[in-house]
């Protein structure tokens, strides 16, 4: 009996996992990317044990690949060699990869009730499919490579009940930015965030994923949406192994908040904090760049809505629109649906799949004084480039509408 | 021990910008710590210095390079009103001592008694000791040594 996280961690630890207890849990999958992998590989070699389960370690080069410089190339090479040396099958080479969280979901590693850790803070995304997932450090990832287990302090849970339905120009992202603005970047520190209600049931998996992705931006440890028929449909023919769904049973929530989705308007997070949230219509700042991509909003649903906004229109002459599909499969789907043609015709630049400029890596880094509206998750000082550049976080619809208007604008849909 | 003060919500992008995430060498990472927001830090920080901050220290990216950068500079303690959880775990795992305590912004020197949960500067502060489980990992010098010694 308990919240979703208590139920899942009880099952994975064989103990009664109540909030604030520390439990030792069995891990279903552990993932590292190219930048967090390197320290993990060094620590793993230091531990000097074999990999606990070669099928359950997932290696995804995504941040700095295809390599942006020699050091990134060396780092990517370290992952390739680690995979080979340890017989890791689930290594996704450039050309068959994507942003790590998208790959985890597409490959069927994520499923309800599972316990998944990843050396990337946005690992919390998988609660969208009803899994317990959270970000860890590289050293911990190495420990999981060797042992298949990890300790967790069971978090208390805040429940967010969202009734009503979102307006056509609003997405899960707008709802999540609103919530983060209300609770602040430290408002859910150490907590599990459970989302439920009619609005959540109505969301696409992509929108659910983008909301759980940003749980970390409120300080949260994990996020959950009750797994429903849409999850089963997505996993059919995709999931590796079986799964059983877990729901809260007579949960004891530390706090509850209620929202009416119909009152939400397109939102942005203004510089330099994700909780500096304002209605997009009130901001109207001129932009130099619009960025559509990332583990938050680089999925096919995100590209579709952006293409709908951009169809027959041109990107403003003072703006670069950069489109970065979250994975090869998203790229292929966008190609098949003619979305890439819409982007090209509008004057956008289309990149291959990568984390790219989301974290100031490459493929759209900002110069001093430049302003970017971005479908990503963080707008910290210098996050996408120069410390005197500015990032406004927004939904894909708002990013596309702003690219056309040359300033931050709501989409008309 | 000499104190460096920081505010609320210090993110790991500030501690170590993403462009340096191409190495696991603590000293090299340390040479870029807080480079964009406080460039003098990496040059002037000395062995045994203490970081004192507000709430949600180490928020954002899971990059343990942030903890490694502090270790590379010889920082011994991070004291904050609260920590972001991944950073906090990374500290425990790598043996950097992190303490949840609200220390005044005017403290220049601090003596820290980790075992007994006491900090002494101009004022005296106390903090609850971490759970025994975490104490054991720290006593072993981090999670790797803990794993080895206890054959977990």
Chart the SSEs and their pairings:
The complex is a heterodimer of chains A (413) and B (152).
Chain A: H1 4-13, E1 22-26, E2 29-33, H2 34-47, E3 57-60, H3 70-86, H4 100-106, E4 115-119, E5 132-135, H5 138-147, E6 149-153, E7 157-163, H6 172-183, E8 192-196, H7 198-202, H8 205-213, E9 222-224, H9 229-235, E10 255-260, E11 267-269, E12 277-279, E13 289-293, H10 294-297, H11 300-310, E14 320-324, H12 328-336, H13 339-346, E15 349-350, E16 371-374, E17 390-393, H14 396-405
Helix pairs in contact in A: 2-3, 2-5, 6-8, 11-13, 11-14
Chain B: E1 3-5, H1 12-15, H2 26-30, H3 40-44, E2 50-53, H4 65-73, E3 77-80, H5 85-94, E4 97-100, E5 111-113, E6 118-120, E7 124-126, H6 132-139, H7 143-150
Parallel strand pairs in B: 1-2, 2-3, 3-4
Antiparallel strand pairs in B: 5-6, 6-7
Structure description:
The complex is a heterodimer of chains A (413) and B (152). Chain A has 14 helices and 17 strands. In chain A, the strands form 5 sheets. Chain A has a 5-stranded parallel sheet with strand order 15-14-13-16-17. A 4-stranded parallel sheet of chain A has the order 3-2-4-5, with helices on both faces. Chain A has a 4-stranded parallel sheet with strand order 9-8-7-10. Chain A has 413 residues and is of the alpha/beta class. Chain A is globular, with a radius of gyration of 20 Å. Helix content of chain A is 32%, strand content 18%. Chain A has 2 domains: 4-258, Aconitase, domain 3, CATH 3.30.499; 267-405, Aconitase, domain 3, CATH 3.30.499.10. With 152 residues, chain B is an alpha/beta fold. Chain B has a single domain (3-150), classed as Aconitase, domain 4 (Alpha-Beta Barrel), CATH 3.20.19.10. Chain B is built from 7 helices and 7 strands; from the N terminus they run βαααβαβαββββαα. Chain B has helices at residues 12-15, 26-30, 40-44, 65-73, 85-94, 132-139, 143-150, and strands at residues 3-5, 50-53, 77-80, 97-100, 111-113, 118-120, 124-126. In chain B, the strands form 2 sheets. Chain B has a 4-stranded parallel sheet with strand order 1-2-3-4, covered by helices on one side. A 3-stranded antiparallel sheet of chain B has the order 5-6-7, with no helix packed on it. Chain B is globular and about 35 Å long. The relative contact order of chain B is 0.16.
């Amino acid at each position: 009996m308990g919240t979703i996280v208590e139920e899942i961690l009880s099952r994975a630890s064989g103990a009664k996992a109540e909030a604030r207890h520390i439990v030792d849990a069995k891990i279903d999958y552990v993932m590292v990317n190219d930048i967090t992998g390197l320290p993990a590989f060094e620590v793993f070699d230091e531990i000097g044990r074999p990999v606990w389960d070669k099928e359950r370690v997932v290696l995804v080069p995504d941040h700095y690949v295809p390599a942006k410089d020699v050091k990134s190339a060396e780092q990517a090479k370290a992952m390739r060699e680690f995979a080979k040396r340890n017989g890791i099958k689930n290594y996704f080479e450039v050309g068959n990869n994507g942003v790590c969280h998208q790959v985890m979901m597409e490959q069927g590693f994520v499923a309800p009730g599972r316990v998944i850790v990843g050396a990337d803070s946005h690992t919390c995304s998988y609660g969208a499919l009803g899994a317990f997932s959270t970000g860890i450090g590289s050293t911990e990832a190495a420990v999981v490579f060797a042992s298949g287990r990890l300790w967790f302090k069971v978090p208390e849970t805040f429940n967010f009940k969202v009734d009503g339905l979102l307006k056509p120009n609003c997405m899960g992202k707008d709802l999540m930015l609103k919530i983060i603005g209300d609770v602040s970047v430290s408002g859910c520190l150490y907590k599990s965030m459970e989302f439920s209600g009619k609005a959540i049931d109505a969301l696409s998996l992509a929108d659910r994923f983008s909301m759980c992705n940003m749980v970390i931006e409120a300080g949260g440890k994990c996020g959950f949406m009750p797994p429903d028929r849409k999850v089963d449909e997505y996993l059919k023919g995709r999931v590796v192994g079986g799964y059983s769904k877990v729901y809260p049973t007579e949960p004891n929530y530390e706090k509850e908040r209620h929202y009416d989705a119909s009152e939400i308007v397109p939102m942005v997070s203004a510089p330099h904090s994700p909780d500096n949230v304002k209605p997009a219509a009130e901001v109207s700042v001129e932009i130099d760049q619009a960025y559509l991509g990332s583990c938050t909003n680089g999925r096919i649903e995100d590209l579709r809505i952006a293409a709908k906004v951009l169809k027959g229109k041109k990107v403003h002459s003072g703006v670069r629109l950069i489109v970065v599909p979250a994975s090869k499969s998203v790229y292929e789907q966008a190609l098949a649906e003619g979305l890439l043609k819409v982007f090209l015709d509008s004057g956008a630049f289309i990149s291959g799949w990568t984390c790219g400029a989301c974290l100031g890596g490459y493929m759209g880094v900002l110069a001093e004084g430049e302003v970017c509206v971005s479908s990503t998750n963080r707008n910290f000082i210098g996050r996408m480039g120069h410390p005197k550049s500015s990032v406004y976080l927004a939904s894909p619809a708002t990013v596309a509408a702003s690219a056309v208007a040359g300033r931050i604008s709501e989409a008309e849909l | 021990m000499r104190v460096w003060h920081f505010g609320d919500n210090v993110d790991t992008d500030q501690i170590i910008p993403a462009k340096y995430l191409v190495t696991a060498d603590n000293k090299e990472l340390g040479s870029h710590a807080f480079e964009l927001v406080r460039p003098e830090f990496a040059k002037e920080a000395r062995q045994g210095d203490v970081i004192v901050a507000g709430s949600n220290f180490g928020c954002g990216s899971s990059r343990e390079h942030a903890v490694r950068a502090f270790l590379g500079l010889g920082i011994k303690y991070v004291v904050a009103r609260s920590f972001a959880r991944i950073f906090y775990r990374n500290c425990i795992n790598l043996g950097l001592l992190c303490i949840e305590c609200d220390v005044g912004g005017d403290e220049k020197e601090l003596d820290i008694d980790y075992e007994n949960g006491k900090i002494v500067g101009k004022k005296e502060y106390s903090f609850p000791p971490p759970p025994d489980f975490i104490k054991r990992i720290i006593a072993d010098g981090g999670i790797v040594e803990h794993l080895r010694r206890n054959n977990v």
